[in-house]
Design brief:
Layout (H helix, E strand, L loop, with lengths): L1 H30 L6 H15 L3 H10 L4 H22 L12 H18 L3 H10 L2 H18 L4 H8 L13 H5 L3 H22 L13 H7 L4 H21 L9 H12 L3 E4 L4 H14 L9 E4 H21 L9 H21 L3 H10 L3 H22 L7
Parallel strand pairs: 1-2
Length: about 400
């Protein structure tokens, strides 16, 4: 009887979520207000992350902590699958690839703070978001601190340092960002094919050496229920997120933000909605939108004209908020919701870690999602430097903080 009630509750929750997401998408199509598509994208993003517990911090830490690289492989699958989608979208001129500049000092300093902070926080920014959806109290403490760390860099005491680091930039020979295409002379599409072929070869060779064992099928539950209620392997979530990234790029570009998945500034800008004024609201790429917003700000309070409004992208805000709800629904379907109290010292460390994580992400212009998932997929060499620094710093912090400076065997 309990099983029947659980199955019914899961089906009802899933059905309600699907209906809401479909209705929001229909409204977006009818009104051409594409920013609304950030809601289903964010929801699915959080759902997929939670299903595989695909947190950037644990993906790196588990390599030395548990000798387990499956989550790290899952991140790589996200990147490669994203490359396929971006290559196709770029080929058909549906998007304009927008890799970030090679801000080497920002990526090094930000990477060190971010890589160490996310170990103390128990998760990267996206990890803190989806774990908050699970009811993790430490992640909630970290999520309170993360926007404070970002704001300290964007508007507070670390703004001077940020501006100084931003001056240290390396440009390609044509004056643009340093990318693999700019270094090799090969097109983005050609390099994407190379990465796909190499990844496929690695999978093939790995399967030959370590063939997968066939697991017994659970015939007592429908296939759909098994998919939504059971944990996913990291590579499975990687494929799903990689596909979602292409839709996110289209949606984001149509909403005034020409970039794929990202969460760092979405966390900050969600806070700004409640704490700051004036704000410049961006929800579409039409220039008229920005002019109307500025005019409204001037009309409301002329004294504020001396202070430039802070720009917020509604696509990021809707994505981040929906991510938490998507993770919450996924956790409920799996029965993983826990609002268990944590020891005070853990929550303090998580809060401090959140400050470092937020500050590091702000200095580097992004986190695991924006700089590693999306940045690597855009073949940005600067973001590859950031990823290396984050991984090494994560390993060092994990070794001393979580392992007590002792190797596990």
């Amino acid at each position: 009887m309990v099983s029947d009630k659980t199955n019914f509750s899961s089906r009802s929750l899933l059905l309600t979520s699907v209906v809401i997401l479909v209705l929001v998408t229909i409204v977006a199509v009818i009104t051409r207000l594409w920013v609304l598509t950030a809601i289903p994208i964010g929801f699915l993003f959080g759902f997929f992350l939670e299903k595989a517990d695909l947190c950037g911090s644990s993906a790196f830490s588990e390599v030395i902590l548990m000798k387990d690289s499956r989550k790290l492989w899952g991140l790589w699958i996200v990147i490669v699958v994203s490359m396929i989608g971006f290559a196709l979208l770029d080929f058909f001129d549906l998007i304009t690839l927008n890799p970030r500049p090679f801000l080497w000092a920002s990526y090094v300093v930000g990477g060190v703070l971010f890589g160490s902070g996310m170990v103390l926080a128990g998760g990267c920014i996206s990890g803190s978001l989806f774990k908050t959806g699970q009811g993790n109290m430490n992640s909630m403490a970290a999520l309170v601190a993360i926007p404070l760390g970002i704001a300290a860099v964007e508007y507070g005491p670390l703004k001077g340092l940020n501006q100084s680091l931003l001056q240290k930039v390396i440009l390609s020979t044509d004056g643009g960002p340093v990318t693999l295409p700019s270094l090799t002379g090969l097109s983005y599409q050609a390099l994407a094919i190379v990465f796909i072929l190499v990844t496929t070869a690695v999978v093939f060779l790995s399967q030959r050496r370590n063939p997968l064992k066939k697991l017994p099928k659970e015939n007592n539950k429908p296939l759909l229920l098994r998919i939504i209620a059971h944990p996913w392997k990291p590579w499975q979530a990687g494929i799903a997120i990689g596909i979602l990234a292409s839709f996110a790029y289209l949606s984001s570009a149509a909403s005034g933000r020409n970039y794929p998945l990202g969460v760092t500034h979405g966390v900050l800008q969600t806070q700004l909605l409640f704490t700051d004024y004036p704000l410049e609201h961006v929800w579409s790429k039409a220039p008229l939108n920005q002019e109307m917003t500025k005019a409204m700000v001037m009309k409301k309070d002329p004294k504020e004209n001396q202070k430039p409004p802070k720009k917020i992208f509604w696509w990021l805000i809707l994505e981040v908020v929906s991510l938490v709800f998507g993770a919450n629904v996924s956790a409920r379907l799996s029965g993983k919701i826990k609002f268990a109290p944590k020891p005070p010292d853990e929550m303090i460390f998580a809060f401090v870690g959140g400050l470092l994580t937020g500050a590091g992400a702000a200095l580097a212009g992004g986190c695991v999602i924006g700089n590693i998932m999306s940045g690597f997929a855009l073949m940005s060499v600067g973001h590859m430097l950031f990823g290396i620094v984050v991984m090494l710093t994560n390993w060092i912090t994990t070794y001393f903080y979580m392992m007590g400076a002792q190797w596990t065997h």
